[in-house]
Amino acid sequence: MYDGVTGKKFKITCPSGCAKKNGNIFGTLVYLDDSVICKSAVHAGYLDDSTGGDLIFEITNGILHYESLFMNSVHSIAFDHGRRSFVFRSDEEEGLVITCGDTGDEEKFNGELGTRYDVVCPENCSK
């Protein structure tokens, strides 16, 4: 349904009650593209299940392992070797660009406790 190349963004509206709907989600914060989008948004904390709302998600490359975690009353499933993924973005920013050596105590991460950052990591940081 949401065909697109890596980096393509979609703005969608999710109804309330998505967390209880059928369908699986794979991963935590980075989701396999077969995951139910609105349910994933509740899991990630980008959507309040009682109200629903608008959100932006972006197509990204697949990753080697999608973590399983219970968050925001939703359980995700682990999965290995996805072809494509998606992540959620905020309206305000395109992502904070960091370097391979940045740590969590960098000055650029100076928001209040609970502040969410969308970060863009340079290619080949793991090498």
Quick take:
6% of the residues lie in helices and 30% in strands. The chain has one helix spanning 37-44, and strands at residues 9-14, 27-28, 30-32, 53-61, 65-66, 70-71, 74-75, 79-80, 84-89, 96-97, 119-120. The longest helix is centred in the N-terminal third of the chain and has 8 residues, at 37-44.
Structure write-up:
- The structure is a single chain.
- This protein has two domains: 1-91, Ferric Hydroxamate Uptake Protein, Chain A, domain 1, CATH 2.170.130; 92-127, no CATH class.
- It has one helix and eleven strands.
- It has one helix at residues 37-44; strands spanning 9-14, 27-28, 30-32, 53-61, 65-66, 70-71, 74-75, 79-80, 84-89, 96-97, 119-120.
Question: What's the CATH first level of the largest domain?
Answer: Mainly Beta
CATH fold-level topology of the largest domain:
Ferric Hydroxamate Uptake Protein, Chain A, domain 1
Uncertain parts: none
Query: From the alpha-carbon coordinates, what is the Rg to the nearest angstrom?
Result: 15 Å
Number of helices: 1
